[in-house]
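USER: If only I could read backbone structure tokens as easily as an amino acid sequence. It would mean a lot if you studied the pair and described how this chain folds. Here is the record:
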Amino acid sequence: MSENLKIDPYGFREYDARWLYKKDINDLGITNLGKGLGTQIINHTKKNNPRIIVGHDYRSYSEQIKKALKKGLLSTGCYVEDIGLSLSPMVYFAQFNLNADAIAMITASHNENGWTGVKMGIKKGLTHAPEEMRELKEITLSEKFINGKGKEKEIKDFKEIYKENLINKNKIKKKIKAVVACGNGTAGIFAPDVLRGIGCDVIELDCNLDWKFPKYNPNPEDLKMLNEIAKIVKENKADIGFGFDGDGDRVGIIDDKGNEIFSDKIGLLIARNLSKSYKNSKFVVDVKSTGLYTNDKVLNENQCETIYWKTGHSHIKRKVHLEKALAGFEKSGHFFFNEPLGFGYDDGINSAIQVCHLLNNQNKKISEIINELPKTFQSPTMAPYCKDEEKYKVVDNLIKEIEKIKENKITIDGQKIDNTLTVNGIRFSLEDGSWGLIRASSNKPSLVVVTESPTSNERKIEIFKFIDDMLQKTGKIGDYDQKI
């Protein structure tokens, strides 16, 4: 390796790549990543000149990174089609619309400024899975690159094609007053136009592009962002508030009273709505999602099945694809709609549109519709710091401890552990349906902790205290990003 090449191996995550730019990766490192990705695409597609769609988000350095990545792709023989400033779902859509072989989107989504990353995919509608990321890492770090001669072309105004595709098939009759918040991220030049286009009365909040993110990161799980949306919803007597993340593949929802509705519950409302027209369907949800899907009366009446699966947009997307599920819902706000509702990838704007259809079809406020669900007390997603090289070991040890607690019938807040699910960390459920989750974050040096109780807020807190106590005893945990 040449002396000035910088590429931290830890940047290769479970289903995308993320680094602190200049500190953990430099332009040469990005170019090598492009060479690695180009080589991988050629190996998979068996084509000398596969066509790859490339887009970037609105960070100050994203265009520079895209240039370095394209240089690597072109050197392997890839034909690059650059669609410019994009959302991740716009890049996914472009692969279908332009019938390309692969995609690469330059984004670190909602990560703090300084971070960069790439979301990649070869099979249409799917992003890299862990085995493809391992393969990419191996090709890139060992520099086993194919040499070829690529070509590049710029595709102008593709964002209009993407917007029109969403608008044309989703017109609504009801005038829904919607607060559309983008946290100064890239969704600001897409979401207001699309929602206005389908017939909403849009109130914009932080939709001007500002890569410094002056108020907060564009992250619909961030309480600061949600509180701001709630304030504007109440001031304007709006019907709903939508908060989009940095690259537009996720959405957060605030009801007409200014309360946050966690995305897993919005998912359940959408699933209920769809189950009436699509009986015997399957839905996939991630392990951070509410336990309400399991025994939901509407889903049961319509013979629908819900599968709990690994957290992470790539995992849920693939499971939806594999199970031929109608839709998938992730608690972080990634929603996936399969044929005939969509192409299977996550698009925050399309998710917001589905919520608008829900309101359009019922003569009720969103707060009334949500009240039809059984009440549960849910924690936000909490992330205590834990080193990348230690987090998986910490979780493995906790799985063993919790399995022992279950075996020995030790109680948590007077409740025995009823069952455990270990597809992704450990999710343990108590006799009353309360549950707690501990897993390793796939894109940050941290763990992820979530708790929920259908019984009481106190029980939700007690489960968190039980988890936190176990974590503190490991001596491997730093500060939380937020806590209940």
